[in-house]
Amino acid sequence: MERIKNEEIRQSDSYLKYQEFATSIRSHCIRMTNRGRSGHVGSMLSMADLLAVLYEKILRVKPENPKWPERDRFILSKGHGGAAVYAVLAEKGFFPMEWLDTYYMDNGKLSGHISHHIPGVEFSTGSLGHGLPVAAGMALAAKQAGKTHKIFCLMSDGDCNEGSTWEAIMFAAQHKLDNLTVIIDYNRIQALGKMEDVIEMEPFAKKLEDFRWAVCEIDGHNYDEIEDVLSKVPMIKGKPTWILARTVKGKCVDYLENTVSCHYKYIADDKLDEAIKGLGGQL
Amino acid sequence: MRATFNKTLVELAEKDNRIFMVLADIGYGEIEPFAENFPDRYYNAGVAEQNMTGIACGVAMEGNIAITYSIANFPTLRCLEQIRNDVCYHNANVKIVIIGGGMAYGPLGISHHSTEDLAIMRALPNLVVLAPSDCIEAKAATEAMIAHNGPVYYRCGYKNEKDIHRGAIDFKIGKAIEVTEGNDATVIYTGTIGYNAFEAVHSLERQGIKCRLISMHTIKPIDKEAILKAANETGAIVTVEEHNINGGLGSAVAEVLADHSAVGVKFKRIALPDINVSLVGSQEWLRGKYGMSSDAIADTVKALVFSKTS
User: A72, A85, B87, B252: which sits with the fewest CB atoms below 10 Å from its CB?
Assistant: First the structure.
């Protein structure tokens, strides 16, 4: 009993740690997009919990040495959500926090889509369908060289409309790239509408199983589930892992949640404090 | 020429274990020695050029040299955004090799012609653009490409191209090769159409017109010095390329002349007209149809030499 109690406390502690980190990521994203008068805040809020667990627990990276050869590679294929990764990297000490204030600004450090010119960013993306082929290439090179680091690629469901994504899905299975893990930020809303009205991917998990991947479906806002599955990859030896993380676009700002428009809007000045308070964040 | 390229690549890969080949289900009868000698560095992405390029980029980002390889425009146009965003933006050590530049696959039709590649590839930052003209240049260009740290586009010929050079050449990326000396006019060519330019220059010599012949094997960075020297010393320049008239060698040379206010230089571009080629025929027959036979090149040069400047 005692052991279980300790386990509960440990989980509770890490839960709070993840929650605090995710709240901080969301606060930064809301402020950055407000300051930049820029879009995509819904996509950032959607994946904040996934990023919190990845960078708090899973990824082996060194902020003081971003090019450490043995680091795990993390590619954000949905480059439009880059501000969320920038927030993570600043919080982790990859670069000064003040850089976040320059997001989307003239002569700014941080562009709207994620850039490898920033310490800690593995690869620049922005046009969808680019992340997975490159991640698969990195996974292939790691295998060939007998290296043990892992490659993680965080993608959007819209990313999976692209033919190049499916080319890479087939390639990764063919070459048994079990050092490669894809996480889908599965919020089911793409740029012009809901997936069921644009390109329905269901049965999504079955598709990937049929394409010879190890597939797992989780709640993308449940830290225990995220941590549990990411700690155990590869799920099946000899297969790449596909994690379908069900998320809510615009998560934690109630009037943005599950809207198409949160792909474009920023939170206006007069709603900023309320939104950040609603997250439980500090003003 | 493709045989020369593949043979040279195998020789280089023996010495350099960073060299990978990532191709897209093309290369039968040519790529087998690489595949057999280096099975852990040979990957067929299947008929999927976008993924081929992305995979190659990922492989290169890990400290390797990755070759992408396919027919004519397949490894360029189908995956242009991967070349731009992934390869060029990250300055990844990817070498994009096409087999059959220009109309080398003649009767197969326009789907297998590569006649806009020089224009499109040279518009991409960080990308070196090479178009060797014979097997001697092809070998040297392959070695230079591998030695260069960064992305390179390599427009390879197909087969049975005749040699222009005799013996060893001094091949440097960005440095044109003067094939023959002359001061009456300059003929600048790129790629395998060079042999027709070579024959044209010899024919003109017999007629008493001594032309300088320049192999512009590197379209980017272009050898400005050689162009301006030719303009200054010969006063007339004809460019010859198996490529749409827009944006290729002729345009690149014209840009140099215009940027340096090379006023009064006679100038003519021999290239394909801005059309979709729908005629059916061999490469040499098609060249003839579009004014690129040796005789037609000689006639164009002669007409320019004897024309009056306006």
Answer: A72
Q: Give every CB contact of residue A118 below 8 A, 6+ residues apart in sequence.
A: A86, A89, A94, A95, A99, A109, A110
pLDDT confidence of residue A3: 45
Interchain pair A136, B40: CB under 8 A:
no
Of B226, B242, B210, the closest CA to residue B133 belongs to B242
State yes or no: pLDDT of A4 exceeds 70.
no
Between CA A96 and CA A225 the distance in angstroms is: 32
Beta bridge partners of B126: none
Return the exposure string of B65-76: e unless at least 16 CB atoms fall within 10 Å of the residue's CB, then b: bbbbbbbbbbbb
Taking CA A100 as the corner, what is the angle to CA A98 and CA A103, rounded to the nearest 5 degrees?
Answer: 130
How much is the average pLDDT of A104-119? 97
β A189-190/A193-194 pair status? antiparallel
Distance CA A201, CA B194 (A): 52
Contacts of B127 by beta carbon, 8 Å cutoff, 6+ apart:
B83, B87, B88, B121, B151, B152, B153, B220
pLDDT the model gives residue A16 = 93
**DSSP assignment of B31-88, as one string?**
SHHHHHH-GGGEEE--S-HHHHHHHHHHHHHTT-EEEEEEETTTTTTTTHHIIIIIII
Q: How far is A74 from chain B (nearest CA, A)?
A: 12
Judge contact between B90 and B61, C-beta under 8 A. yes
> What's the pLDDT score for residue B271?
98
Return the closest-CA partner of residue B112 out of B70, B65, B174, B49: B70
Provide ipTM, 2 decimals: 0.95
Interchain contact, B48 vs A170, CB within 8 Å: yes
For A57, phi then psi, to 5°, come to -130, -40
CA distance B41 to A144: 8
> How far, in Å, CA of B234 to CA of B213, rounded?
11
pLDDT of residue B114: 97
Question: Strand, coil or helix: what is B160?
Answer: coil
Task: With CB atoms and an 8 Å threshold, state whether A171 touches B46.
Answer: yes
Over residues A237-258, the pLDDT tens digits come to 999 999 999 999 999 999 999 9
Q: Which fold has domain A2-279?
A: Rossmann fold (3.40.50)
Residue A7: the pLDDT is 54
Domains in chain A: boundaries = 2-279
A–B: how many Cβ contacts below 8 A? 92
Question: Both tokens of residue A55?
Answer: 């960078």
Beta carbons of A136 and B51 less than 8 Å apart = yes
- pLDDT at B308 (0 to 100): 79
Q: Give the model confidence (pLDDT) of A182-241 as tens digits.
A: 999 999 999 999 999 999 999 999 999 999 999 999 999 999 999 999 999 999 999 999
Contact at CB, A140 and B81, closer than 8 angstroms: no
pLDDT value for B167 = 86
Chain A residues whose beta carbon lies within 8 Å of the beta carbon of residue B57: 133-134, 137
Counting as low any pLDDT under 70, the low residues of chain B are 309-310
Listed by number, the residues of chain A in 171-200 with a beta carbon closer than 8 Å to a beta carbon of chain B are 171, 174-175
Domains (range + CATH), chain B: 2-156 (3.40.50.970), 177-306 (3.40.50.920)
Q: Where are the alpha helices (DSSP H) in chain B?
A: 2-15, 32-37, 49-61, 80-81, 117-122, 135-147, 194-206, 224-234, 249-259, 283-289, 294-306
